[in-house]
Amino acid sequence: MCGESCLTIQGMALNVTELLAGAVKTALHAAALPAPEAVAWEIPREAEHGDYATNVAMTLARPARRPPRQVAEAIVRHLPAVAAIERVEIAGPGFLNVFLAPRWCAEALREILLAGEGYGQSDLGRGRRYRIEFVSANPTGPLVIVNARAAAVGDALARILRSQGFQVACQYYVNDAGTQFQALASSMEVRLRQALGESAELPENAYPGEYLVDLAQDYLARDPAGARAALALPAGERLERLGRLAVDTMVAGQRRVLEEYGTAFDRWTYEATDVRAAGLPERAIDELRAAGFIYEAEGALWFRSTALGDDKDRVLRKSDGELTYFAVDIGFHHFGKFADVDCVIDLLGPDHHGYIPRLKAAMTALGHPEAAFDVLIVQLVTLLRDGQPVPMSKRRGEFVLMEELLEEVGRDAARFTFLTRRHDSPLEFDLAVATRQSADNPVFYVQYAHARVTSLFRTAAQQGVAVPPWREVDFGRLALPEEQTIIKGLLQYPELVAGAARAREPHRIAYYLSELAGIFHPYYKAHRILTEDRPLSLARLGLCAAVGQVLRSGLGLLGVSAPESM
RNA sequence: GCGCCCGUAGCUCAGUUGGAUAGAGCGUCAGACUUCGAAUCUGAAGGUCGGGGGUUCGAUUCCCUCCGGGCGCACCA
Q1: How far is the CA of A451 from the C1' of B52 (A)?
Q2: Contact criterion met (CB below 8 Å) for A406 and A435
Q3: For residue range A334-352, what is the model confidence (pLDDT) as tens digits?
Q4: Per-residue pLDDT at A396 exceeds 90
Q5: DSSP states of A274-290 as a string?
Q6: Degrees (nearest 5) of the Cα angle A150, A151, A152?
Q7: CA-to-CA distance for A227 and A470, rounded, in angstroms?
Q8: Considering the entire predicted model, what is its pTM?
Q9: CB of A161 within 8 A of CB of A168?
């Protein structure tokens, strides 16, 4: 009876649309009308249009060869008695507007409380294994502000998917090979020589950031003999040694900042050892060849990606014998990612969107279903301070570091702010606003609502109010319209999380939480929770507890803390 | 030139895969603390959803076109 995202506790379905859809399907069957695979429900803007509305009657009008309103009437006539439904109205061209029964809502609130932390979770994923790769900044410098955005999005997505019954592994890829590595190594050498007082100039493609100056000086201070010995090595070994040192230091720094941010990666994959030295690109090329997608031309090895929707064919091995970045990436994806998971999600920057078709083509050629590979673009961040852009010049090596961001606005405000936008739309991040601890900063608004709830329970305890188990409380006392609105809001939470998981859109959670806080604050302001009327007080305490519980759950999905006091 | 993303209130952005009279926060203006946390609350003003066509019962949403932004078009990574 129950669908995949239907949560049943104590025999009561808490997935409202699932419940309503079941009733409508029963009615359609009884009325001998064709039943669609899915009945779509929406939450109407206008309260007069009910709590849930569906347009099935309109969509069925054509196949049933009857006017929509007649179809609607037939559905209503055959609708089984369902406790959740108070009444159904037919409106407009044929909408079915459903009004939930207050008594059922009261019981639903009890179920929410009894479900506790499990409320909002589901088995949508049925244990399907996902791998998400994100941040994966080049090991040529510290993490910057866009990396913080990608970390927020990727980590929240992982948490959301896990809550829906997916197994999720987070992966970080270290590009410690190729030309960037060479540039880093030679920059490091120059900085080291400069630290020794030698005259050395940074080459054209070098990394100019101050951090390499610091790194060279630290190295020299820590291990002067080792530093001099490294410089005395032959060119190849010298660059390898210095480059490795720089990479290790950079990665360690990136890792530390990500940990402070609350982002945990299950696997750190190194291009040089885990992918190139392991021969993954060659093995992937062999598979592509066997599948007939490889040809040679002009001294190079080509992948026929145009056969799978790309604009042009792509080189995998250059005429100088070197593998391209693309070839390495194919090996990494096919073996390093897909080896032990069912689905892969990449988070990439906007400068890589042209890269997606060829990567998808390669995965398809290697036999991965289209739906198993997803690429999300995380757009750029513009940094403002009181509305004024903060200058960032990559050329001069001046960035706003992720570390500095965390220091200035804190982890919670940073994460929440990044998650109040769709990941693929550019974001303006105003440092002053994120630091301001007031209503124009949504994270404080939501956290404050949570703190108010916990504070309320502290006060109740001080007043000697004994809170019995929720199954003994009469929630039928919650008769105020605001109370019904809050319960209905809470009822939307499981489907909202499932939707965010399906669409890979963590920002939906952030918006939901703001809205929930936005109906809770006015209620709390206008009505006393702890009154002389003890049964009413307990019912209201339960409502507040449920709000707090859902806020805590949602904030947890975003990786933002739910403080007990602020 | 080709491809992708975007254009919604003064600002920053949502809009539930096509729904009913267009949404929030900030900002502006006018108000509310003897009571559970004023980091809060109440109210007002604010719109040709970039323009124009099309698809249909119905379009901010889908298609075409134009205008205006961003990005990508390597034997770079």
Answers
A1: 52
A2: no
A3: 999 999 999 999 999 988 8
A4: no
A5: IIITTTHHHHHHHHHHH
A6: 90
A7: 67
A8: 0.94
A9: yes
For the CA of A484 and the C1' of B57, the distance in angstroms is 33
CA of residue A520 to C1' of nucleotide B31, angstroms: 21
Q: How far is CA A434 from the centre of its chain?
A: 20
Angle at A553 between CA A549 and CA A557, to 5 degrees: 170
- Cβ A215 vs Cβ A187: under 8 Å: no
Instruction: Taking the CA atoms of A234, A236, A237 and A243 in sequence, report the sign of the dihedral they define.
Output: positive
DSSP string covering A112-159, please? HHHHGGGBTB--TTTT-EEEEE-----TTS--BHHHHHHHHHHHHHHH
CA angle A457, A461, A466 (to 5 degrees): 100
Backbone torsions φ then ψ of A278, nearest 5 degrees: -80, -5
| R_g of chain A, CA atoms, integer Å | 29
Q: Rounded distance, CA A404 to CA A391, Å?
A: 14
Is A451 in contact with A564 (CB distance < 8 Å)? yes
pLDDT digits (tens, 9 = 90+) for A190-233: 999 999 999 999 888 888 888 999 999 999 999 999 999 999 99
Q: Shortest CA distance to A561 belongs to which of A429, A454, A459?
A: A454
**Contacts of residue A126, Cβ cutoff 8 Å, sequence gap at least 6:** A4, A165
d(CA A41, CA A61): 17
Amino acid whose CA is nearest the C1' of B18: A55
* A233: number of Cβ within 10 Å: 13
Residue A498 identity = A
- State the Cα–Cα distance between residues A77 and A73, nearest whole angstrom: 6
Per-residue DSSP letter, A225: H
Could you give the ipTM of this predicted complex?
0.94
Q: For residue A492, which nucleotide's C1' is closest to its Cα?
A: B16
Q: How many residues does chain A have?
A: 566
Nucleotides of B under 7 A from a protein CB: 2-6, 12-27, 35-42, 57-58, 70-77
CA–C1' distance A382–B55 (Å)? 39
What is the average pLDDT score of chain A? Answer: 91
Helical residues (DSSP H) of A31-95, grouped into ranges: 56-64, 68-78
Adjacent-strand bridge partners of A13: A8
- Residue A545 (CA) to nucleotide B28 (C1'), in angstroms, measures 36
- The closest alpha carbon to A434, from A420, A448, A414, belongs to A414
Going by C-alpha positions, the residue among A523, A521, A536 that lies closest to residue A465 is: A536
